[in-house]
Amino acid sequence: MNIFSRFIDIINANMNAMLDKAEDPEKMLRMMIQEMEDTLIELKSSCASSMAEGAKLEKAVKEAEEASQRWEKRAMLAISKGKEDLAREALAEKLQMKKEAEQSAKLLEENRATVAESRKDIASLEEKLSESKARFRIIKEKQERARNEKKARESIRKDTEARFEEMEKRINRMNAENDLNRGFEEMEKSDEIERELAELKKKAGI
User: Fold this and answer.
1) At what angle do helices 3-12 and 25-80 cross, to 10 degrees?
2) Can you give the pTM of this predicted structure?
């Protein structure tokens, strides 16, 4: 696929539809931006080559026109000297240079149209590239927020679980302490009952 076919495909691409169907919009948009940047480099390179060719054509037109004028002056000089054959040869050269100037001028006109079209294509692609980069930043920021929110939720969940686990441990410790206290209280109560019983037996003379 040549550069201009790729350019047309990019410009005509329905970016919204492509991103909606993409499993990873950020990755797809990054690839599209890379393709645009590569195509833009080639477009600018092609335009620069056309401009360089245009400069050569301008020089060729100027040189051919100047040569045509010189041969016309030589023809006039030959006529003034009565040398018609030499004048005819000079006029033939003049016509040849004039023809070359016209051909180069036509090519120059086509070249300028090509350069103008290339600049238009470059401007269109730069605009679409700028829009794509802005959209990429939005998507990236959105996905980054989503990742951060997920991390925050996970952190809160883990923190909540840790607090519940600690609370459960404290409750278990409290229950164990209560059971231990009840055991000692029961032993202390039993000892007191035995002492009271012994006192009653003593009073009863048993």
Assistant:
1) 130
2) 0.63
